[in-house]
Design brief:
The protein is α+β, with helices and mostly antiparallel strands. Helices cover about 45% and strands about 20% of the residues. The protein has a three-stranded antiparallel β-sheet.
């Protein structure tokens, strides 16, 4: 996979008091899930981590990672801010 495997940006709010993040690549999603996520369990969380790994080895599209990442954020109670199309 190219390191520039980008997807439409996902804004996250409340990942900590006053913390906001914009995630727009498989690498950003993986790093956020593994290092900054408030919980390290849950079905959606595990699916998102697996999606990142699958995309890194070339078995999944970046947009599929994005969808899994948004699901994990919702499961964790993190506000998701999406840009209008």
């Amino acid at each position: 996979m190219r390191q520039t495997a980008n997807f439409r940006p996902v804004g996250l709010a409340s990942m900590g008091l006053g913390h906001y993040a914009v995630i727009n690549s498989v690498w950003d999603a993986a790093r956020t899930l593994l290092h900054d996520w408030p919980v390290d369990d849950g079905e959606e969380y595990l699916e998102a981590v697996k999606a990142c790994l699958d995309a890194i080895i070339g078995d999944l599209r970046p947009e599929d990672v994005r969808a899994a990442f948004v699901g994990a954020a919702q499961e964790a109670g993190i506000a998701v801010i999406e840009a209008a199309d």
